[in-house]
Amino acid sequence: MKLRFSRKTLCIPYAVFLLFFVIVPMAVILVYAFTDRNMHFSFGNFIKFFSDPTKLSTIVYSIVIALITTVVCLLIAYPVAYILARSKMKKKHVILMLFVVPMWINFVLRVNAIRELFNWIGLLGQANYFNTVFGMVYDFLPFMILPLYTTLMKIDPSLYEASYDLGGNGFTAFTRVTLPLSVPGIVSGVTMVFLPSMTNYVVSDMLGNSMVTIIGKFIYEYFGSDWHMGSMVALVLLVVVFVSTLLTGGFKSEENVRGANL
Amino acid sequence: MAEHIIELQDVTKYFGDNLVIDHVSFYVNKGEFITFLGPSGCGKTTTLRMIAGFDLPTSGKILLNGEDISRLPPNKRPVNTVFQRYALFPHLNIFENIAFGLKCKRVENTYRNKDGKEYTKRERLSKKEIAEKVKKALALVDLEGFEKRSVATLSGGQQQRVAIARAIVNEPEILLLDEPLGALDLKMRKEMQLELKEMHRRLGITFIYVTHDQEEALTMSDTIVVMSDGVVQQIGTPQGIYNEPANTFVADFIGESNIFNGTVVGKHKVKFCGKMFDCVDDFGEGEPADVVVRPEDIQMTSPDKGTLKGEVISVVFKGIHYEITVQVGKYEVVVQSTESRAVGETIGLNVAPDGIHLMKPKYTTNVFDGVINKANKVEFAGGEFDCDVTQLYPGSHLDEEDYLITATGEKLDLTGTEVKVEVGLYDIEISDDEDAGGTTGHIISIIYKGDHYRVIVRTGDSDEDEDFVFATEDLWNENDYVSVIIPREKIKLTLKNTEEKKR
């Protein structure tokens, strides 16, 4: 018998994957979040979550830490990406590579190394929030640099020349050409840094000396004892992620929003 | 006398070690339409970019209305550019694109305060003024009502118009156009050529235009600057350049031409293709000359009435004329005529005296600086060649150890001797076998001269390149990588300094 694969049959593996690893787990989370221990429908977890000040403050802390991390990453990454993209240096990909190479080393090992470093200089346990943000920035910086670099590289250099030609100075060229045209890269970088830094509790645990609790840690802990509350926290996080993606325009299907091209 | 709005004084530009503009000087009259014409890589765009301010000259001066602007940044120059690929801002709509320059602009307004004192303030243009100017500019390029459209929705021709509007809305003294029509199709290009010419007439400002299309240059320009290899070859009106090309490069580049090697045989008499012709140019008798005859300046007659007689070998219909190639002896002559002839027919050809243009040949022989090496070979142009070193000393010969024994019996070691190397135009061959010759290089120019091609091969790196000029009957392509072969007996050596190295 001749085997024939139509496009439809080729889709089946992905459909199965989507069903069992995306849709079913989501449904399970949804069910668990709105049921009690006897699997009866209940808003109990919902009410408990939003009436518990520690949980709410954890959410706020998570968002604040993620925001600070994102802003610091952006402030560091933009000049780096800009200088690299504009320079005529022949070996600039080597420098770019140096920023990316740490990603090749195991993440836990890197965080541990920073922890030892902080311990050595006596910062560990002294400035938990600073340490956490430091570790997050260190970890997520490449995810900000790469999409920015790619978008900045794509800007036609004659646009800068056009801007000078029309009487603009360096400042105009930046604010009216470079910045607007690099927005897709910014959005993509922000998305790739903001979301993980809200949930990456390995960093906060190890560098924050277990004194910094972010939302990811919560979920981890609840799933050890109370799956229902854990699911509710996960659901709340999902909504936060959804809203922030919506705000940064990550759902636009336009090609230019996907500035990362990694 | 017309005012010189732009003047280049001895401008040279290097990119790294690469010489792209080689001591160029010329001026542009106020209000004229001037075109820089040349093949790609000739330096025309670099010249334009230096006037715009994007590139700075390595040496020399650029004067605008008599003031040195060589070091002025682009935003301080009263010139605007229409870029090759338009360079419209993709994130802005048409209105914002055109208004970009106006929003950067500051004007000095004079006011009177309460005490009646006058004072000036540098201010932005008001929104209303900007909107009015943009509207006017759009009307000028026939794009009324396009303000809100995005750049991506426009066709190539429309983007072109927006680019022009964006430049002229700033009311520059000079509009620079860098091959602006290159991306358009033929019909569109012809239309835009006429429109640009009309726009130039209406605006009355100076247009500096860059193109590699000779027809475009002839159609639009008041003045054409023909460039090649970073050097200005000729400056003149379209008619002047077409009718009186200064050298074979210009003749070959502008329009079709027949180029022959000729010899001046008397007052207003020149011999080429084996026949004598009357001409109007006056050269010294016996001097070699490059002869240029435009295909449309050749008349076809019956075989017995023509100065030249030949057989038609091809006829191509070109729309308004036929292009007829005639084999005259060993020469090929191209004729343009509204009449057709049959292939194989024998016809006569005549050229009127004013259809013959004589030019001093640029190349008569190749001269290089060389050094004799240990093996008694001569090194020059990045390679080494077998040669007869005994010609340096009359009556000398080489002994079995390769020392030179002069006529008086003196024993010389020639290693390191500096010599002048001369090689004739007909004594060089090239081969695509890289190891066949003494040195290798790329073909940078090929010009057909009726019965042979004049080829220039450039050897060595950009820093110290040497050109070989020679004649060949074989057709090669520009940029072919070839090796240069010179027969041992054709290399003529003379001592550079009389100080001999004695052993």
List keywords for this structure.
heterodimer, A: 262 residues, B: OB fold (Dihydrolipoamide Acetyltransferase, E2P), OB fold (Dihydrolipoamide Acetyltransferase, E2P), 6-stranded mixed β-sheet, 5-stranded antiparallel β-sheet, 35 strands, 40% strand
User: What is the 3D shape of chain A?
Assistant: globular
Relative helix content of chain B: 10-25%
CATH class category name of the largest domain in chain B: Alpha Beta
Tally of DSSP β-strands of chain B = 35
Assembly state here? heterodimer
Tell me the name of the CATH class of chain A.
Mainly Alpha
For the termini of chain B, the CA-CA separation is 67 Å
Query: Helical element count of chain B?
Result: 8
CATH level-4 homologous superfamily of chain A: MetI-like
Structural class of chain A: mainly alpha
CATH architecture assignment name of chain A: Orthogonal Bundle
Q: Which percent range describes the beta-strand content of chain A?
A: under 5%
Kindly report the greatest chain-chain contact and the residue count on each side. A-B, 17 and 24 residues
CATH topology of chain A: MetI-like fold
The CATH superfamily title of the largest domain in chain B = P-loop containing nucleotide triphosphate hydrolases
CATH-defined architecture of the largest domain in chain B: 3-Layer(aba) Sandwich
Computed over alpha carbons, the radius of gyration of chain A is 22 Å
Name the poorly predicted regions of chain A: 253-262
Main beta-sheet annotation of chain A: none
Helix content of chain A: over 70%
